[in-house]
Amino acid sequence: MLTTCAFQLLFGKFYTFYSVKWVYLIALLIFEVGSVVCAAAPTSEALIIGRAIAGVGSAGIFAGALLIVAQTVPLEKRPTYTGLIGSMYGLASVAGPLLGGVFTDSEKLTWRWCFWINLPFGAVTALFIVFFYTDIRKVKETNLTWKDRLEQFDIHGTIVFMPAIICLLLALQWGGSKYPWGNGRIIALLVLAFVLLAAFIGIQIWKQDKATVPPRILKQRSVAGSAWFAAMLGSAFFVLVYFVPLWFQAIKSVSATKSGIMNLPMILTLVIMSILAGGLVTVTGYYNPFVIGSSILGTVGAGLISTWEVDTAHPAWIGYQAIFGLGIGMGMQQPLIAVQAVLKHRDIATGTAIIIFSQTLGGALSISIAQNVFNNQLIKNLGKEVPNLDPSIVLATGATSLKATLPSEFIGGVLRAYNLSLTQTFYIAVAYMGLSIIGSLALEWRSIKGKKIEMGGAA
Questions:
Q1: Helices (H) and strands (E) in the chain, counts
Q2: Are residues 118 and 158 in the same domain?
Q3: Is 108 in the same domain as 92?
Q4: Which tens digit of pLDDT belongs to each residue from 410-429?
Q5: Which pTM does this prediction carry?
Q6: Residue numbers of the domain that contains 161
Q7: Are residues 205 and 307 in the same domain?
Q8: How many of the other CB atoms lie within 10 Å of CB of 149?
Q9: Is the pLDDT of residue 355 over 60?
Q10: Distance CA 26, CA 63 (A)
Q11: CATH code for the domain in which residue 424 is found
């Protein structure tokens, strides 16, 4: 997440000034190199380095896939294809952890296959791109000096933006877990993050069209609304994708693999609705009803999930997940269509990067915030339900091992405390989906029918 967020906007610049085909292939290569480093990692430090490298590559892969669609598919048909891409994104969100659990539990394959498996898929993708995709955009050759080329990439903004995002994410990840919020490290990281972000904003205003995020693009109503909606939707989605399986593990006493299977109602409805919504936008020409419907249905679904109790039965946990999944699938890809409908061809790569960055950063921040809320509420609720049990014992016990590890007289109280803490954490997803309506209503009502928008070359 750290490197993906940090490099997302920079890839928007790469795709603006260079061949989409070759930037995408380079991003894919970086991701594959990172996967190899992870798979062969002899130490935890090497694994971290590998994941950081893979994160850089992944920052360019998703945006590149969407831009390839933008180059090859007319705008009015684009929602169908972006819906397919979005459905695969949602499916991967649960299939990844599920396969990871299978590999980890296997004596022959081990966790290293979580990374080795990326290689054949990446190779097949690269072959298809090399032989079957022609970059129709003509990148103009210019005699720019190295200084001018650096200016194109807003080197000043990039230098302050990357450490700002890294400091912010580290502070939120470590705060309240590894270090207390009052710890000097956390305070220093937060102060540095906000100072650097303030500097980045100032640089964007100064640079104008040469900025990483040109102000004129963000001033466009639909772009700002889409970025807000994507950030809120991504935040809500990541919170529930992360914590709903934890609820199954702790409350229903299932394995990590089984919890992934029990999370399928959310993901399958997301996949189906993402494809269906894309097709309907293509037919009707309007994405606004689906964005608004996503905010409403997603809020209702997240709210229903937050009502789960220890004894919640199958119909409720299946049905409520399905409602939330329908809401997310209905709106996940619409911001990308909105920015492509309102921006000029030269700005589409930057607009796409802004939306993906907003969704990714929202997810990264929301998980850190939700983790802190969960830990704090669990300590508080354990003190009420089982005052004679040291909360640190429960925190150190894995969610799947509660009943097997703790004394039987404490199990009932611990499960009630765990359930309450998780449902209180689910409230965060409810709030995010509720706030997404601000972005939904901000989008201009524009039909994508009859419009021919092509990706243009860089000057």
A1: 20, 0
A2: no
A3: yes
A4: 888 889 999 999 999 999 99
A5: 0.83
A6: 154-211
A7: no
A8: 12
A9: yes
A10: 13
A11: 1.20.1250.20
